[in-house]
What we know:
By secondary structure, the protein is mainly beta. It has 2 domains: 3-194; 205-470, Kelch-type beta propeller (Neuraminidase, 6 Propeller), CATH 2.120.10. 4% of the residues lie in helices and 42% in strands. The chain contains 1 helix and 44 strands. Strand 33 and strand 34 (386-389) form a beta hairpin. It is globular, with a radius of gyration of 22 Å. The two termini are 41 Å apart. Residues 1-27 and 137-168 have low confidence and may be disordered.
Amino acid sequence: MEKQLFMAIGVVGLVLVGLSSAYGDIPLMINHQGLVKVEGFPFDGTGYFRFAIVDPDSGYNVWTNDGTKLGTSQTPTDAVTLPVVKGMYNVRLGDVSIPNMPPISSAVFDDDNVVLRVWFSDGSHGTELLDPDQVITSAAYAYHALTAETAAIAGDADTVDGQDAGDLAMPPGYCIVGYTATTPPGYTYVGAMSGTNEWAAKAAMIDTRKACAAAVVNGVIYATGGDASGTDALHDAYDPATNSWTRKASLPTGRRSLAAAAVDGVIYAIGGSSGSTAYETVNEAYDPVGDSWSTKPTMPTGRHSLAVAVVDGVIYAIGGRSSPSNYLTVNEAYDPVGESWSTKEPMLLGRYGLAAAAVGETIYAIGGDAGVPSPANQAYDTVANSWSTKAPMPAGRSNLAAASLGGIVYAIGGTSATDGFETANEAYDPIANSWSTRAPMPTRRTTVAAAVAGGQIYAIAGTLENGTRSNATEAYAPAVYLFRKD
């Protein structure tokens, strides 16, 4: 098998992650794109990649994608699973939201002679080293340069690491990438780099279900609860690498219209409506390694059709319904380490059937039913414990799903007052505070669940237009855009 690696943007090798980096705090993440061929042809499918930043003088790894084999020249133990489209892949090195990906310490770039080493497997022919190693000195320089530019613009600092910010300004021709085509000041839009802005049908679920919840651990998506035929306790795992579903240990308290989130490899199934209790307080934790459930402290406010999001290891449970006519503003936070709940600042507008997603330390609570399907988009600052109103969705939707990818929030499916059950896929850019329309979901449905794995958004299950349950699994690959410094 022949494998060849070509960098998508030539000499830059690695480029800075995210448009948001140009405007705010710079995350220590670096976006890497490449092209891989198998037997002379661009590979299409799921790729298994291992990455190491290497000191070429010693040949030793100073950073690896899974934190293993440091101080050696050996291949990292665990792979990062990535979609490869027409040979092209994209990954944010140091993005801890990606399974098998630890952060990158700034000390890695103290040496100006480090290189990126990449191993690839197509899942059939074993793992092979891609040749040659990629020099990343320019990327480290670009990282520090953009940090300096941001500091200078913000007026927060005159120097960075003892050097004048102006001396470190990013030179013309260097590039950044993002998940929106909005061009930042001082840059020229080059075009879409990877991703397709298209949906693909994946393996159908084992059973049809609606109003389930979804969460991801180590690149595997777990669909929990929901209304299935005769039970609300199903718990299944979808592996994008094999495009297959597997039945797992049942949810102890069967529930529909619940919420789920993953923290430190554990999934928490919260709230919902069970056969015995319409507005549940139950909080149950699933360990994928042991395929087992345990009971955790109950949520203070019983409710269903709530939304959850995770920031800094804390789960925030927002909104929902606690009676037929009660649209909750409640916001309660669960700390899995301390196993305790606390009450936070309530949401500005009470809603149920809403969706939530986090970008950085801010949670966006989107849509929901406030008597009618609402277009509301309200941002919760978890540090300041305060809410603010943001640009509303183009049209109100309830029982939708939301997911965050690359600093962009995607609002998918649901029910609207005008079109009924929706295929809508709309993207919110927190930096620009604006919405854009993306490729619609193929299967029109409401009470849909969503999860992010391998750089794609998966829309799972839901209620079809005729009221029946769906077993659809559909994956959306957003386009990635390139911008060149003027």
